[in-house]
Amino acid sequence: MEPDYPRLELGGLPIVIDSGAPDQTNDPILGESVVRMGEGGGVKLSHWEKAGGTISAEGLISSGLDGLNYDGPLLLKLTIPQCITRHDLVFELTSVPRDDVAPWAYAVVDGDLQRTPCTYLDGGVTVTPVAAADLYIVEWMPMYTVFASRPAKSFNHGSRRYSWQINWEEV
Fold first, then answer.
1. What CATH number does the domain containing 38 carry?
2. Taking all residues of the chain, what is their mean pLDDT, rounded to a whole number?
């Protein structure tokens, strides 16, 4: 029941299907530490959080992204959904959703997912209530302004396939 998946994009360029189906990670980069008090109890200090990760694939051609200018920030549109589950109807998203794919929502009724309409405005999503729903789930595909590395790549002459990987971090 998920929406049609668009192509992953970096710097305004989509990853073409012959480059391979991209594997994506979206790993938080955290400015945090745990400090121990006099009796040994821990206190977590969080200063900031940014997104980071990798994009990799194996395909008939390389990524096609060698011509991008990796010296400056690039817009990255991922296709790996982020997800929040709550009991109420109002959600504050933790990242900006792609501008070409609206967030979507589910209601959990008797343990089953049921699509339900939702509206997105200024970083928040409001879900339409469903009778007898226990929980609500909102998903979206994020986009970030990132610094990315030029793709690392390899070619296997036996299989005639390229492998490539791009590392990225939110600006």
1. 2.40.30
2. 95
